[in-house]
Design goal:
Layout lengths: L10 H17 L8 E2 L10 E3 L1 H9 L11 H10 L12 E2 L5 E3 L3 H14 L10 E5 L11 H19 L3 E6 L7 H12 L13 H14 L1 H15 L3 H24 L5 E2 L9 H10 L3 E4 L2 E4 L13
Parallel strand pairs: 5-6, 6-7
Antiparallel strand pairs: 1-2, 2-4, 3-4, 8-9
Helix pairs in contact: 1-3, 2-3, 6-7, 6-8, 6-9, 7-8
């Protein structure tokens, strides 16, 4: 059997559609039927059940008859006799005295489905393939991932797998926080605690604690804060030593993130905030040309009218 001419069938849809067509043909009304699944057991040896003959007969019964028959079982029998396209899927349908219909999938049908999965995997041919970008957990460098990051990661991966199953091309993007003022304080903390960091990679076993220490100094020591702000300017300007320190911090953090992604069997493409650094000058110039930028304490700032927000500093 050629893989391109065959795909996995939905047994539920096939059975329901065939039953619906038969009921509509016999009863001459467009009433929707009911089909339920069943956990196959020795006491209930069937996969699907349909009570619609009983329900429809009782709902339309008049003077002991409905649809030209005298019982739900007779209605069910007429429906079964007019069924089409189910011979390859189910065994002969069973009817009880009340007109309740039960169906068991054929072993040959199940074997065909399983063999297809073994030979070709899951195949779903979508009419229009698209390229879809899914934004993932986006943790911050030098901070531990928390349960919120795990939640968005698992939800994101689930969405990606559904889209890929439907034949779409998916790009898993991790927009990590790897740029900004916090790197001024982190780089200065690294320089002071590990002055030989350029020659010997520091062992930052607790990167989260390292971040907390730097943040406390940034909040409490004015001189450290000023140096951190100056370092950010140097980093954004491409200072060699600052860039190397930044890369060290990012790589240590990235290795910790990867442990979690590897355990979840997830591969992401990283597009950090730093990815957009080269684009900033053109954006700032456009904002200046349009009159959105004002100077405040040596920084270029933008304010949003009608909103109370913190300053967005552009050094």
């Amino acid at each position: 059997m050629e893989p391109l001419s065959y795909s996995l069938k939905s047994s539920f849809s096939a059975i329901r559609n065939s039953l619906q067509a038969s009921f509509t043909k016999i009863c001459q009304i467009p009433e929707k039927i009911t089909l339920t699944t069943n956990n196959y057991t020795p006491k209930t040896p069937y996969d699907y059940a349909c009570p619609s003959a009983v329900k429809m007969f009782n709902a339309h019964k008049k003077d002991g008859q409905a649809f030209g028959v005298k019982s739900p079982k007779e209605l069910a029998l007429k429906v079964v006799e007019s069924l089409e396209n189910l011979g390859e899927i189910v065994e002969p349908i069973d009817l009880n005295e009340q007109g309740f219909m039960t169906m068991k999938l054929k072993e040959s049908y199940l074997e065909t489905q399983v063999n297809f999965l073994l030979n070709h995997g899951c195949v779903y041919n979508t009419e229009k393939k698209q390229k879809v970008v899914v934004d993932f957990s986006s943790p911050n460098i030098a901070k531990e991932m928390h349960v919120g990051h795990l939640r968005s990661t698992i939800i994101g991966e689930s969405i990606c797998r559904i889209l890929e199953f439907n034949g779409h091309e998916v790009l898993r993007v991790n927009h990590v926080g790897d740029w900004g003022t916090q790197f001024g304080m982190l780089i200065n903390q690294l320089k002071e605690k590990y002055p030989n960091f350029l020659k010997e990679m520091p062992l930052l076993s607790d990167l989260n604690q390292f971040y907390k220490e730097a943040k406390q100094r940034f909040d409490k020591e004015p001189e450290f804060k000023k140096k951190a702000q100056e370092t950010v300017v140097m980093l954004q300007g491409g200072d060699e030593e600052c860039v190397k320190a930044w890369k060290i911090i990012c790589e240590i953090s990235r290795q910790e993130f990867e442990k979690i992604y590897k355990r979840l069997n997830i591969k992401v493409v990283e597009y950090g905030e730093s990815f957009y650094n080269n684009m900033l000058p053109a954006v700032i110039k456009e904002c200046e040309d349009r009159g959105f930028v004002v100077m405040d304490k040596g920084a270029k700032c933008m304010y949003l009218e009608g909103f109370e927000v913190n300053l967005h500093l552009i050094f």
